[in-house]
Amino acid sequence: MRSFAKSDKLSHVLYDVRGPVVDAAAEMEENGMKILKLNIGNPATFGFTAPEEVIFDMRDAIVNSQGYSESRGIFSARKAIMQYAQIKNISNVGMKDVYTGNGASELIQLAMNALLNNGDEILIPAPDYPLWTACANLAGGKAVHYLLDEESDWYPDLADMESKITARTKALVVINPNNPTGANYPVDILKGIVEIARRHELIIFSDEIYDRLVMDDEKHVSIASLAPDLFCVTFSGLSKSHMVCGFRVGWMILSGNKNVARDYIAGINMLSNMRLCSNVPGQSIIQTALGGYQSVNEYIVPGGRVYEQRNYIYDALNSIPGISAKKPKAAFYIFPKIDTERYQITNDSQFALDCLKATRILFVPGSGFNWPKPDHFRIVYLPQVAVLEEAMEKFAKFLATYHQ
Ligand code: PLP
Asked: Which pLDDT belongs to residue 292?
């Protein structure tokens, strides 16, 4: 049969939003079953709401948000993002270096499209947030995965990263804080990555969408702040810190040595112009959101929802025989390991599917994050502790008799 699709690259699976397990869950829902969706990081689904001031200001601004804006975004939004870059010590960021997007997702795709010729390689972590791999491959490039090391709190394995660089490698991607592992990288690891990028003249892409959701008194450091002599592109947005995924507000910041990337920046500008602009009502709340009181801080300290839910899920998972998990320090994900010998698991999608059918709990198998073995899965711990308790009880009961 004739194919009308662009190429098989479009079939790359984004397991958190599509794929066999998500499809099965959708079918179960259509048949009237209630599914607990621990598969997607959408705070609004679990009762988190945007700060009131953000909603108020968007309402106020909407009348004046009807036209296209400058392609990169409105002045107040870019100014606020530029100042945010200053606070994070990211150097050499002017107003022209800030681009707003319909979520960070749009800009990740744009950045990959402008970068990769057929066969160009880019280093992406495994496990990853799979949009990165999908966008790199779809752009015509080749995603080459470097390992995050569970034994070292899921920090990048720098030796593995460097060993995967070839003459065709153009860039490396850092996701910090990390989805799916919840790790927040220390400065020495970030410096090690910068050293590798410097030695091999690579662009650094850093996805920092969870940088305002860091717990346990840890600080988030932007890798771009450690690499003023390199060209860096940093991504963030309001989806997670301000609980407004649906508003689609993200941004991208170019920093450091822009001279080495003039042709690339010209390509970015062309693609940014082609999409005209990002949604203007969304841009209108960026200044309000980034300035002043940050209500997200209430969630990530003792007594706060994200903090307490993290503690609960960490203890609950580790008390199940054959399950072990590192304690996440940031975001709202945990990436536990399952003893595949004990449960005779050879296919992690099958494991997620079997669990879904038995418990009506939906989670994403590790292979959905380009993890090479069938021994991990990701849980989104956004639901209230009482809901998580019920889920973990069912999960433990399911595993007590499970074998593949
Ligand atoms: N980057 C990471 C690491 C994410 O986890 C997500 C969403 O889950 C995104 C980017 C996409 O964010 P946005 O809603 O801004 O498109």
From this structure: 86
pTM above 0.85, yes or no: yes
- Report the pocket of ligand 1 as residue ranges, CB < 6 Å: 41, 103-105, 129, 175, 179, 207, 209, 237, 239, 245, 250
User: How many angstroms separate the Cα of 145 from the Cα of each of 127, 128, 308?
Assistant: 8, 9, 33
Residues 6+ apart with CB under 8 A from 395: 320, 355, 359, 361
d(CA 182, CA 154): 8
What pLDDT was estimated at residue 17? 60
Q: Which atom of ligand 1 lies nearest, measured to the CA of 249?
A: 15
d(CA 35, CA 44): 16
SS3 35: coil
- The DSSP output letter for 326 is P
CA 104–ligand 1 middle distance (angstroms): 6
Which domains occur in the chain, in start order?
19-40+301-400 (3.90.1150.10), 52-290 (3.40.640.10)
Alpha carbon of 175 to ligand 1 centroid (Å) = 10
Chain-centre distance of CA 150, in angstroms? Answer: 18
- Per mean pLDDT, which range of 3-7, 197-201, 262-266, 304-308 is the poorest? 3-7
> Lowest-pLDDT range, 153-162, 288-297, 307-316, 336-345?
288-297
